[in-house]
Amino acid sequence: MRNVVLIGMPGCGKTTFGKLLAEAMHRKFYDADSILSEREGCNLSILYTQDEKHFRAAETQVIKELSTLENAVIATGGGVILRSENMEMLGRNGLIIFIDRKPEKIISCINDNYCPLIGNDKLKLFEIYKQRIELYKHYAKVIIGNNGASEETIAKLLLHCKNYF
After folding, report:
1. What are 108-161's pLDDT values in tens digits?
2. Is 11 left (phi over 0), alpha (psi -120 to 50) or beta?
3. pLDDT at 21
4. Which distant-in-sequence residues (6+ apart) come within 8 Å of 37 by Cβ?
């Protein structure tokens, strides 16, 4: 495995920790949501609400390209686990790490319209977490909790990556 792939709920810290991890490991960082937004030329909330099927297909195309990289740190979108093909591609060349952050912790730090699925209804996050938690656990090789200090989380991530690479 050559890549580090971060999965988890929106707001769990994939992008933040991905950047820190990439810097510490001297690797390039890629944010799948940012790439998707740039390619589609619009905010992901707009794209998702207009056409979820197109959104998921475009997301899979980005994942297909990112999964061929080597020695990268990849932060995925929260719903990447909804398509098994995405996870198969990422798993072929990547250590999949689930950053598990409880919904009540996420709610305390996200802005309105942060995630297309929740919009202004932050309580939807609990429902989405309940629907996805088993998929995140199923696809992850490593599960890291992010419910305390950020320094603790990045230390755990670095330790696990050191043991794999």
Report:
1. 776 554 565 566 677 888 999 999 999 999 999 999 999 989 999 999 999 999
2. left
3. 97
4. 43, 44, 47
Distance CA 109, CA 87 (A): 28
State how far the Cα of 134 lies from the Cα of 139, in Å rounded to an integer.
9
* Contact present, 71 and 3 (Cβ < 8 Å): yes
Regarding pTM above 0.90, the answer is yes
The answer to whether 50 and 6 are in contact (CB under 8 A) is no
Query: Which of 96, 76, 79, 90 has the alpha carbon at shortest distance from 13?
Result: 76
Helix then strand then coil, in percent of the chain rounded to 5, is: 55, 15, 30
Cα angle: 72, vertex 78, 81; to 5 degrees: 85
Angstrom distances, CA of residue 50 to CA of 43, 44, 45, 53, 98: 11, 10, 9, 9, 28
- Mean pLDDT over 49-71 rounds to 91
